[in-house]
TrEMBL record:
Protein name as catalogued: Nitrate/nitrite transporter NarK
Transmembrane segments: 34-59, 71-88, 100-120, 126-148, 160-186, 192-215, 236-258, 278-298, 310-331, 343-365, 396-416, 428-448
Any one Gene Ontology BP term: nitrate assimilation
SUPFAM superfamilies registered for this protein in UniProt: MFS general substrate transporter (SSF103473)
Membrane topology category: Multi-pass membrane protein
GO cellular component, one term: plasma membrane
Amino acid sequence: MGISLGRSHVLSDWDPEDTVAWENGNNKIARRNLIWSVAAEHIGFSVWSIWSVMVLFMPASVYHFSAGDKFLLGATATLVGACLRFPYPFATAKFGGRNWTVFSAFVLLIPTVGTMVLLAHPGLPLWPYLICAALSGLGGGNFASSMTNINAFYPQRLKGWALAVNAGGGNLGVPVVQLVGLLVIATAGNRQPYWVCAIYLVLLAFAGIGAALHMDNLQHYRIEMNTMRAVLAEPHTWVISLLYIGTFGSFIGFSFAFGQVLQMNFVAGGQDAAQASLHAAQIAFLGPLLGSISRVYGGRLADRIGGGRVTLTVFCSMILAAGILISASTLGGHGGHTPAASMAGYVIGFVALFVLSGVGNGSVYKMIPTIFEARSHRLQVGETERRQWSRSMSGALIGFAGAVGALGGVGVNLALRQSYLHNGSATAAFWAFAVVYVAASALTWAIYVRRPLEVATPAAAGVALARA
């Protein structure tokens, strides 16, 4: 479908549930917006997680940062990205999906340039690096705005697939930036990280210009503060958010930490810093890659057999994967030397957690529009108002759950930091992760599997609709 530079980028009276209009061209419009939303979100994820790569370019002999300092950089980026996920859905509704996607792509040029400057001047104190890591967290907010926008473009019957593709494509930004880092380390060595940032300067410009040319704004799509208050009054909001801590929190937290954990264990195994960086980079991308791909299948499975059942299976399996990490860490904690069996355990355990968390990400997010679609049919309103309420409530919860879930990534990095500082290993952190997965399994079984989902309309939701 050709795109005219002078065409209107505002869509009025958009109704994805109109099957006739959908088959006569609206599906192509939605797909075009999905493609460019994925592209911008993908690059945003890469910039957000760029410090998971940069720490491999920062040998202690040159930059004088400890393992705890490097985990703190990851936690800072994750924290800012998580917090920005609260306002970003409102920005999409306020300024338009196209307009906000363009802005959110171009603003990431700032931390990308800052990263190049800082890594070119080793010997600086930690605080400038923390500021730059915080600015890279702007890329983490892109997820919430992108998911909210795509949720409004697709009909209920395709939301599980569309949201999973959008999120999975965005999540792929994590392994891709790590692959770029691997190529730079393999070709230019671990002292020239500038090429990673230079590549992403070009990609950010590409995403911003592409979004400006090909995306659209929805004229009547709004998320009001009354809607957010109604969402916060909904008990399922907090349950879904807690479950998302266990799934996406694990994914993004391990994405930042996996390479560094491998690097430290390769050094403990007798490799020098350059060898350890290369070998860690060769493996680190695999987990986020498989986790991103598995997210799409998680959404599809949830479409077929229900999000609750898929999520429960995921958390039970994550308990077993955490047990593998506990065993590997305990085995490698004796004598200060990391044996090959322990390294294999780290890789198997982490990769399993990445795959499972990806499936869980898709299944948990499928549950969000399902909950509010069911509730909307109990409202005594017209069809247009019912659909608007369902989309607005789902969009608000997508942003809120995404923000809370990302805070789990902060917890992962802080838990690993404290575990290494106090015990010299990650064993205590892995035990903490296992406990979280046990609690999440119990919560999922009790609320979404043991008995049918209650769908009575909350009073707060009716108030929000009346005021909208």
